[in-house]
Amino acid sequence: MNAFILAGGQSTRMGRDKALLPFHGRPLIEHALASLRALGFSPRIAGSRPDLAVWAPILGDSYPGSGPLAGIEAALSASDADLNLFLPIDMPLLPPDFLRWMTARASETSALATIPHLQGRPQPLCAIYHRDLLAHIKSALAAGDLKVMRAIEHAAVAFGSKLDCFNVETIAACLDFPSDPPVHRWFQNINTPPDLRIADLQIAALEKTPLIQ
Predict the structure, then answer these.
(1) 40-54, 105-119, 157-171, 178-192: which range is least confident on average?
(2) Would you call 5 helix, strand, or coil by DSSP?
(3) Mean pLDDT of 195-206
(4) What is the mean pLDDT of residues 76-88?
(5) Is residue 212 part of a domain?
(6) What DSSP letter does each residue of 100-167 carry, written as one string?
(7) Average pLDDT value for residue range 133-158
(8) Does a structural domain hold residue 44?
(9) In the chain, how many domains are there?
(10) pTM for this structure?
(11) Domain residue limits at 158
């Protein structure tokens, strides 16, 4: 399995570059890289961001301006592994232990796509995709259809295969993951200054919580 960070957004709602946004002493890009490196990956950055090459190898988009689906296409085109983990650059509250569990699940099932759902909504930018999806993603991009879930679902129909979609709340309760930050904040995207303040408060509360020995 390979791992990639999706970093091709324009950061228009934030008003400044999210990748380099300071968050608890280091830029968001470093938080994302640290999460994947903690799992033993050597992650690459998918997105036309040559300025981020000081942190990790960059994979430029073949379909500039086409959003995260173009980043997924670039990553799958460069990957030499069947299974590929994706993490957005702006999701610093997601526990690495959850990512570890998800990679283990995908390794067991080898599903076409392993996609968490939170509060009934898919989280397709933090997911594991099989390299067999590449041709269908290319077709969607060429047709100008940039919706990630739609491209994945159409591919599943073409393959006659079911996607591995699971409820995060149920998994978190069954596996007794730590409750800080709360599960409903795990997939909090840092899109706006208010989002950043919420995430700051979550981390501040977590750091004040004594560790259980």
Answers:
(1) 178-192
(2) strand
(3) 66
(4) 97
(5) no
(6) HHHHHHHHHH--SEEEEEETTEE-TTSEEEEGGGHHHHHHHHHTT---HHHHHHHHHHHHT---EEEE
(7) 96
(8) yes
(9) 1
(10) 0.89
(11) 2-207
Q: In this structure, what is the dihedral angle of CA atoms 36, 77, 90, 167, given to the nearest 10 degrees?
A: -80
Amino acid 49: pLDDT: 87
Question: Both tokens of residue 60?
Answer: 């430029």
d(CA 75, CA 68): 11
Q: Quick one: pLDDT band at residue 126, thresholds 50, 70, 90?
A: very high
Domain membership flag for residue 142: yes
Distance of CA 123 to the CA centre of its chain: 8
Q: Collapse the DSSP code of 6 into the 3-class scheme (helix H, G, I; strand E, B; otherwise coil) and give the result.
A: strand
Distance CA 114, CA 106 (A): 6
The answer to whether position 213 is within a domain reads no
CA 44 to chain centre: 12
Which two three-digit tokens encode residue 155? Answer: 């591919």
Residues 6+ apart with CB under 8 A from 75: 2, 4, 44, 46, 59, 84, 86
Q: Can you give the CATH number for the domain in which 199 is found? A: 3.90.550.10
- Please compute, for residue 98, the number of CA atoms within 13 A of its CA located in the half-sphere on the CB side: 32
